[in-house]
Amino acid sequence: MWETSPCLEDRKIIDTRTHCQLVRESKKADRLPLSELCNEVAPHASVKTIKCALVLVNIKKWRARKRLFLKEEHAVKRPAWAKKYKD
């Protein structure tokens, strides 16, 4: 199904079933942080092992959450807005 990687070659921490579940979950919840994905799918494996397993199916980078771009004038107005709508 996938080629072996040097980091997964010696030890089989992630079996075939877990690997397929990992790929499915990573495609389904692409905004989920990698550490949370690791805890949900394979809590016995490290984040580095999960990264190696995802590289095998060509998932190399994790999508970052989009951030709002604030102009200088909006950054000045934001504290007042935050205090107004705090509660």
Blueprint (SSEs and pairs):
Layout: H1 6-9, H2 16-28, H3 34-41, H4 47-55, H5 72-84
Q: How would you sum up this structure, described in words?
A:
- The protein is an all-alpha fold.
- The termini are far apart.
- Helices cover 54% and strands 0% of the residues.
Number of distinct helices = 5
- Using only CA atoms, what is the Rg? 19 Å
The percent of residues in helical segments reads: 40-55%
Count of extended strands: 0
Portion of residues in beta strands equals under 5%
Low-confidence stretches: none
* Elements, N to C (H/E): HHHHH
Average pLDDT number: 81
Biggest sheet layout: none
Secondary-structure-based class equals mainly alpha
What is the straight-line distance between the termini?
53 Å
- Name the shape in a single word: elongated
Quick rundown:
This protein has 87 residues and is mostly helical.
Write out key terms for the chains shown:
single chain; 87 residues; mainly alpha
